[in-house]
Design brief:
It is built from eight helices and seven strands. With about 250 residues, the protein is α/β, with parallel strands linked by helices. The protein has a single domain, classed as Rossmann fold. A seven-stranded parallel β-sheet has the order 3-2-1-4-5-6-7, sandwiched between helices. Strand 5, helix 5 (about 145-165) and strand 6 form a beta-alpha-beta unit. Helix 1 packs across helix 8. The structure holds nicotinamide-adenine-dinucleotide. Nicotinamide-adenine-dinucleotide binds near residues 38, 56, 182 and 184.
């Protein structure tokens, strides 16, 4: 029996990290549904994984998707929020639209999905929510004020929700990935290289050099932490923000 046998899970965002989380949850026996804004992401899902087009900025889309899960599966045991966006801009040059868009997806999207699944979890008396924040949610980063604000916010939201729902057997935790080998990280390093006037390789080397383990994080490293936090292995752990960063200080 897997660690997540018979658990019904929703994963928002089917990108590099989301796909690894989906695969790890399935490996441990979960019945997984992915919510993503882009239909093409859902077309590439592994066999047996359900998908639904859901934009996490839409209250009505999330409410309908939650109702559909309850109708079809009877419950949601696990929610992993990975949907997110990353752009680069210095605060002094940032448009209000860019600020709002980042907060809307990365923070309000997590809020909306948590708000939707908590009532059925309370009804059942159990549940585990895993929110993907970032090491950018633990300390600021130049040109990423909007992103860091959203990720700090995810941790504050998760700690607060953990205090509200712990009495109902529901746990809420965050994972803070460092620099993950992924398209999102490639885009960030490219932007950093552009603004520093250095090469992509030099920026990547400098980030790797700041990690204790001298390596980038793999999506599977984040997925393994998600399995731990979703499963009963972490049954006495709630309200934490777990860095999965290779030791990025
Ligand atoms: N990649 C990294 O280095 C890294 C590091 C730290 C934290 N993170 C966080 O991990 C999470 C996943 O990152 P990733 O590397 O897999 O990114 P990704 O861009 O590969 O995947 C993000 C997914 O979210 C979906 N999405 C975006 N906006 C959405 C919306 N409004 N509604 C529904 N779905 C939406 C996208 O379609 C995409 O499939 C993000 O929250 C990101 O901030 C990533």
């Amino acid at each position: 029996m897997g660690l997540l046998a018979d658990r019904v899970a929703v994963v928002t965002g089917g990108g590099d990290i989301g796909a690894a989380v989906v695969s790890a949850l399935c490996q441990h026996g979960a019945d997984v549904t992915v919510w993503d804004r882009h239909p093409q992401v859902l077309e590439g899902l592994p066999e047996g994984v359900a998908g639904r087009v859901v934009d996490v900025t839409s209250d009505s889309a999330i409410a309908s998707a939650t109702d559909a899960m309850i109708d079809a599966r009877g419950r949601i045991d696990v929610l992993v929020n990975t949907a997110g966006i990353l752009t680069s801009a210095a605060v002094a040059e940032m448009s209000t639209d860019r600020w709002h868009q980042t907060i809307e997806v990365n923070l309000s999207g997590v809020f909306r999905c948590c708000r939707a699944v908590v009532p059925p979890m309370i009804k059942r008396g159990s549940g585990s929510i895993v929110n993907i924040s970032s090491t950018g949610g633990l300390r600021g980063a130049a040109d990423h004020g909007h992103y860091c604000a959203s990720k700090f916010g995810v941790i504050g939201l998760s700690e607060s929700l953990a205090l509200e729902v712990g009495q109902h057997g529901i746990r809420v935790n965050c994972i803070c990935p460092g620099a993950v080998s992924s398209e999102m990280n490639t885009a960030m390093l490219t932007a950093m290289a552009g603004s520093n006037g250095s090469s992509y390789e030099a920026v990547e080397e400098s980030i790797i050099g700041k990690t204790a383990l001298r390596r980038l994080v793999e999506p599977a490293d984040v997925a393994n932490a998600a399995v731990f936090l979703a499963s009963d292995l972490s049954s006495c752990i709630t309200g934490i923000a777990l860095p999965v960063s290779g030791g990025l200080f």
